[in-house]
Amino acid sequence: MRRRRRVVLWAAALAGYAFLYVPLIIVVAYSFNNSRLNAEWVGFTLEWYDKLFHDQDMLIAAGNSLAIALVASIVSTLLGTAAGVAMYRYPSRLLSVLVLAPIAIPEILMGVSLLIFFVLLNLTLGLVSVALAHIAFCIGFVAIVVRARLAGMDETLTEAARDCGASPWNTFRYITLPLIMPGVIAGALMAFTLSIDDFVITFFTAGAGTVTLPLQIYSMIKIAVTPEVNAVSTLLMLLTLALIIIASKLSPTLLRSE
Amino acid sequence: MIVVAVHTPSRLGRWLVSGPPLAYLIVFFALPSLIMVLASFRTPGEFGGLAPLIEEGKLDLNLESYARFFSESVYAQIFLKSFGYALLTTLFCITLAYPLASLIARSSRRYRDLLLLLVILPFWSNFLIRIYAWMILLGPNAALARTVNRVLAWFGHDPVPLLFSAFAVLVCLVYVHLPFMVLPLYANLEKHDQALLDAAQDLGANAWQRFWRITFPLSLPGVYAGAALVFIPAFGIFAIPDILGGPEDSLIGNVIKQQFLETRDWPFGSVLSIVLTVVALAFAGLAAWVARGNLRTPSSARGSRA
Amino acid sequence: MALLEIQNVTRRFGDFTAVDNVSIGIEAGEFFTLLGPSGCGKTTLLRMIAGFDLPDGGRILLKGEDLVDRPPERRPMRMVFQSYALFPHMTVEGNVAFPLQMAKTPASEISAKVEAALEDVRLTGFDKRYPHELSGGQRQRVAIGRALVTHPSVLLLDEPLAALDAKLREEMQIELINLQKEVGITFVYVTHDQTEALALSHRIAVMNKGRIEQLDVPSKIYGFPKTRFVADFIGHINLLSGSVSERQGGVITLAVEGLGPVRVTSASPISVGGAGTIALRPEKIRIQSSAPTDSPDNHYRGTVGDLLYMGDVTVYKVSIPGGTRIEALLANSQSGRAKFFEIGDAVEVSWPVDAGHLIEE
Ligand SMILES: Nc1ncnc2c1ncn2[C@@H]1O[C@H](COP(=O)(O)OP(=O)(O)OP(=O)(O)O)[C@@H](O)[C@H]1O
Ligand SMILES: [Mg+2]
């Protein structure tokens, strides 16, 4: 009786996991498939990867994505860490709302409002506008991780530091910062991943001339399904997977606090 | 423990720390949102987009775009359709998430983190790639479509395309949002006390009754939290119908995109965006409100089955 | 003027007064203890001295200087936290060197000073270890070493031994006494353990509900408690209440209900008819099969109601026919016998008139 129920539960859950993973596995598998059509396994090839590394548009898009992600993750880590510390140390409603709202509202909203904003400012849409937009939504993710790390820290440590003669700044620099560093790094990796993956907000703020990896993938799949997309997808997934695994090692609550 | 930040020039410290992120978010989030609200009361520019906010020294606001939204029923219909898709997505996510979350909650500590990680990882892979995966799976030459159509042929039915259909949109919406439902549900189920179920069994409840009368009502706060997390992004989605849907599967997100990038009627696009936000947040607020009420009086959340 | 002056210090949380008009003067080189039950305001007072909290009223002065404008890092005092508060990302050496670095001590002097401090707390050779690689007692010593390394004028210790097991606690108590003698630094020590307070301190302030009940040397606190609270809080005691029926010279007679007249020597100006309580330590009571009737001592007949064999001593609870119970304590060692009496034995309890101590009410 009990056993039968367990079997049913396992079967249902297994189906759930299959639903989550089969599509991604197929994307990866077909990136090595010696066929133009993503329909049937024909044979193993690295042709699509070779093609990928000779595709000028793709390389430019990858360069843009990396540059944006680098800038966005650095700046949002600085601002997000400050925001996380502020939310913990000086709780304020305004800050919490501003930090969390960009995560909570539909993405498209942030995309179009920034589009209006940048155009009104006469800012040419491109790498800069995309980076500015990415920073705005990454701050919240970094702040959440940093705040969780601070909340897990023993408050008497900062008091002990003050007692040992450290000024508030030195206390932060020598005690608090080293102790929250794993959270900060996890936040940075997360911001990098979010930025390099972002499609919706980038779509509205990139303008006509600037292409990032997701935008390039979008325009390719709007035309046709090609194994080259599988190849770039596989590489991108590998990159984010690595970053997220490292981040979750540094901040174990990360993968649970969605 | 007394936590008092004494003697710090706390004003200064406070502004040094919270000032920069606050300033950034005001400039690049709050201000643009406000401008969008203003834009919804303005007229489009001569060549599309938006006329300057201030013309001849004054702010000329009107309700034209709102009037248009409420007079042309096609937009209300699209909203309704988007609402329906989002709602269906939420319901399917609940059904699929339940076995996953209960399995994880019941598994031993050793595997729990791994099983949870396996649910979350797909969420961290690129959004477009996940959509693209379904393009392949549902493609006309793929095994799935061929099998389905062969079965249909036995019944003398004409072949149907799986891709570029409402079906494709819905499957992908569920696929993309499933982790958002599993996590809060798991967090809730994990806290359940096995003794309650044992007691119910002792009192003669069968497995179905135990689920429906105990586990499910107690898990409602988790369900509501997950519903809010799934509904909001699903309601505003544009990439999935854009890539996997047919012409009739346009949702509100697609119309907004169209208003901003093709028709270039920004005031009207702003109106649509604002209505979208209001509806989405109202739904989330409702879910949160109901969840809170349920936390206090679990008995009111009892299933309707006697 | 004392080294550390606490003058009329008050601290309120909402309408709850955690520290109520406390005044203490602590001398240089003194081992001073704040003793009191949980929640009586000891930590609150200590944190105000350290500068983590500010009084709502009153002043705290060090060497005559008001500390109100000094943040914790600029007070020449160090705190030893109950949780040790060692920096987990630094080695023992890093922890002990931290106050020196903050004080901008030249790098060349740091290692010698760290070594000296570690020697003081008997941790030589542990400098490269991290806090999580140490035992509880060793962590405690690092915390003390870190606090001592800059030779502060006052060391504040908040229940530093509470987390240690009984045996280790006793060892550390002895070490603390020796250490304090050696370095000559003023210790302000917080504890709710009365034996610890009696063993360690030069003077003790007994606190209750934010107020000081009695401030005195340990022997006076133990032998001559000023209030019922102090008497009751410090060790076991018999409290016999009644009204004064007679006073003659230095001897007062108290009519105790359920017992009878009890005589006690007292310099108190209490008049006939006034209410008082006699505090009487169990170990000062004699217990015999029969007492010589011609002695001037207080003596009463009763039966052994309960007894508690505790190894070195036995506690007898003697019921007096009037209804009073008197607790007496007898050492077992001399006789080699486990017990002198059994439950139900008829006995006579007696004590000299100067064995008790009168508390006025
Ligand atoms: N920040 C605060 N807000 C409100 N009440 C407080 C605060 N800090 C302390 N109190 C109250 O003040 C009283 C004294 O607290 P304190 O920590 O000084 O007690 P204590 O004597 O150190 O007790 P213990 O032996 O348990 O450590 C307690 O009743 C406590 O609840
Ligand atoms: Mg305390």
Task: Give structural notes.
The complex is a heterotrimer of chains A (258), B (306) and C (361). With 258 residues, chain A is mainly α. Chain A has one domain: MetI-like fold. Chain A is 78% helix and 0% strand. The N terminus and C terminus of chain B are likely disordered. Chain B has 306 residues and is mainly α. The radius of gyration of chain B is 25 Å and the shape is globular. Chain B has a single domain, classed as MetI-like fold (Orthogonal Bundle), CATH 1.10.3720.10. In chain B, strand 1 and strand 2 form a beta hairpin. With 361 residues, chain C is α+β, with helices and mostly antiparallel strands. Chain C contains 8 helices and 20 strands. In chain C, strands 6-7-8-3-9-10 form a 6-stranded mixed beta sheet, sandwiched between helices. A 5-stranded antiparallel beta sheet of chain C has the order 13-12-11-14-20. In chain C, a hairpin with a 2-residue loop joins strand 9 and strand 10. The model of chain C has no long low-confidence stretch (mean pLDDT 86). The chains are: A mainly alpha (258), B mainly alpha (306), C alpha+beta (361). The interface between B and C is small, with 5 and 10 residues. Adenosine-5'-triphosphate binds next to helix 1 of chain C. The site of magnesium ion has 2 residues of chain C, from helix 1.
Summed up:
By secondary structure, chain A is mostly helical.
Give the strand line-up of the largest sheet of chain B.
Answer: 1-2
Largest sheet of chain B: 2 strands, antiparallel
Strand content of chain C: 35-45%
Number of E-type strands of chain C: 20
Helix content of chain B: over 70%
Please report the first level of CATH classification, the CATH class of chain B: Mainly Alpha
CATH topology of the largest domain in chain C: Rossmann fold
For the termini of chain C, the CA-CA separation is 33 Å
- Secondary-structure arrangement, i.e. CATH architecture of chain B: Orthogonal Bundle
Shape of chain B: globular
- How many individual helices of chain C? 8
Radius of gyration of chain C: 25 Å
List the strand order in the largest sheet of chain C: 6-7-8-3-9-10
Number of strands of chain B: 2
The overall average pLDDT of chain C, rounded, is: 86
How many whole angstroms does the radius of gyration of chain B measure? 25 Å
Q: In percent terms, what proportion of residues of chain B is strand?
A: under 5%
Uncertain runs of chain C: none
